[in-house]
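Changelog entry: the ABC transporter ATP-binding protein record was regenerated in this release. Current contents:
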Amino acid sequence: MTAAVRARGLGRKYGRRWALSDCTLDIPSGRVAGLVGPNGAGKTTLLSLAAGHLAPSVGTIEVVGGRPGSDMGKVGFVAQETPVYAALSVADHLRLGARLNPGWDAALARDRIERLGLDPSLRAGRLSGGQRAQLALTLGIAKRPELLILDEPVASLDPLARREFLQGLMEAAAEHELSVLLSSHLVSDLERVCDHLVVLVGSRVRVTGEVDELLATHHRLTGPRRDPATLPADQHVVSASHTDRQSTLLVRTGTPIHDPAWTVGQVTLEDLVLAYMSEPADTSRIDRPALEVHR
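Regenerated structure tokens:
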């Protein structure tokens, strides 16, 4: 099956600074993939490379089996500002979409606008933030792409508008069999809609894989204070914290943990993301290379 996004040794440099470095990942088709990381981690750079807006400095990237930008009809892009034209009406946006996109699905666009209750004669400048975001999403979906890329599309929305946007995104992805790459700072949003995860930190991929498998292979261990270097070799320490008497570790392992000294707890997606985003703790057993999980 063709990957929605495949990168090998991908990097982008601005002057002397690497905005993205040594990025190797595979995002399978048909997934809603969440891209998360701190500011400056390289998220927008990766999305811009995937959309064909930037060229790599090193390495390669393919989207839906081809070079980014070679067939713009296959990729839809919704930027963080959910750009629409304030002076144009909703209907004007749909007409513009039809002119610019050979594969435009007018019926899909019209039906979605009706379901959203948007007045086609209303100018975009008079829409709420949530309505503008929904209009931008409609434009992205109605071009019938194979991959839809969204860069922080709900960052400025209130919780209700954010939930409605994400609900619409999930419905569209299921109905039209879209692959989606969604960047967000809000882990709760990713938890709601994503089945694949990419965590970027310091311009590098720290972990990527199927959400269910990542959660199944990461555990929180709590027990008497211990040097993480004494753990079995197959227990990779992601983060560690210690008190005088107790250690709390987040580890990744594919095998059961039988040591009775540990209390083993489940981790949430937020626990996992924050652990990889945090600075390494005082342990010599923290995984530093990017980790990938494959089915």
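The chain has two domains: 3-202, 212-292.
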